[in-house]
């Protein structure tokens, strides 16, 4: 049984939106990090490493969620579990 085209359209738009959100997040991260490092260097301090690492970790987690979940990894695992439980796929 194939999913309805409207369902596929909704899923495609959702995944594209998730990826676009990550790209916006990464762009803002890069710009703000550049600004923070510039400010820190003018002040003669190395404090910019802390927000860079902290926010970078958040960006990495966001990327894992978007690109692993968005690529269908979760759906594939659910499908495998349905088969193991003896359920018909997509019931």
Describe the structure.
- This protein is mainly alpha-helical and 91 residues long.
- It is 79% helix and 0% strand.
- The chain has helices at 5-43, 49-69, 73-84.
- The radius of gyration is 20 Å and the shape is elongated.
Roughly how many Å is the radius of gyration?
A: 20 Å
Poorly predicted regions: none
Distance from N terminus to C terminus (CA atoms, Å) equals 9 Å
Shape: elongated
Helix content: over 70%
Overall average pLDDT? 86
Approximately what portion of the residues adopt beta-strand conformation? under 5%
Main β-sheet description: none
Order of helices and strands: HHH
Number of strands: 0
Q: Which secondary-structure class do the elements indicate? A: mainly alpha
Tally of DSSP helical segments:
3
Oligomer: single chain
Write the topology of this structure.
Layout: H1 5-43, H2 49-69, H3 73-84
Helix pairs in contact: 1-2
Describe the structure concisely for a colleague.
The protein is mainly α and 91 residues long. The chain is built from three helices and no strands.
Spell out the key features of this protein.
single chain; 91 residues; mainly alpha; 79% helix
